[in-house]
Amino acid sequence: MTYDLVIGDRAYSSWSLRGWLLFDAFGIPVNLHHARLYTDELPNLLKAFHPGKTAPTMRTPDGVVVPETIAIAEELASRHPEAGLWPADPRARAVARVLAAEMHAGFTALRSHCPMNLRVSYTDCLPPAEVLADLQRLETIWDWAREQTGAKLWLAGDYSAADVFFAPVATRIATYNLPVSPRAMDYVQAHLAHPSFRRWRAMGLVDGADQDFYRRPYPRRPWPGPVPLAARAVEGTGAENAACPYSGRPVTHVLDLQGRRIGFCNAFCRDKTVADPEAWPRFMALV
């Protein structure tokens, strides 16, 4: 038995990003149950996850339903102390929990004005004073955390659940080109380059159609994270590998990377790889 996790659209559901990172970034296996936002899919799916009402909602191997990311983080940390979701040092762990709690409950102006959208990046979003105040508060607590723990990049030492909670904020700063200090931008760039985040975003780029709610009229710019290798989907099933690098099933869809044809078992496996080939170690092991 393993965990089950309900998620929404990967490109837009910031809470789902947090929930998934709590598993993927710490090596905890999970079965995903996906529902599209702003449709009947999510409420219908959650009927099997009572009393959950939002994505993400987790079900433990023994059948306990755990909604809310902060509860998911604590439950996984209790059940998997070896995974390192929270820092081992008591002082750093206390700081990390303070950070996660404030992020879970606050920054409503930033959330409202800049909803997560991993498919675009804008030159400017005209942030109002309330958003600028949220950004200043972020920098205050990030600097405080490093002063308390001596951390250099992540907030409490090694990557922890505290950083997971700020991953969607990092994407907002990247998407909306929000004004932050160079030190804060270094933290944002660390998130954009994190292997688990790169996998999530790659899937988000091909995970269903755009959601109209997230459209904004601002001028666009390239995504400020790592530049993916140039790959493209191609027709046919001829490939140098006979089995999908992810599932082991027969090849049905193919991409081209630098003249090499690599095959996959379905369009999603191929397309998430086209979106960011280097995000997928099992693919890169082939090339």
From TrEMBL:
Residues 3-84 form the GST N-terminal domain. Pfam families: GST_N_2. The keyword Transferase applies. Coiled coil: none annotated. GO terms for molecular function: transferase activity. Signal peptide: none annotated. Gene3D superfamilies: 1.20.1050.10, Glutaredoxin (3.40.30.10). Keywords: Transferase. It comes from the Bacteria. This is Glutathione S-transferase. It comes from Tabrizicola oligotrophica.
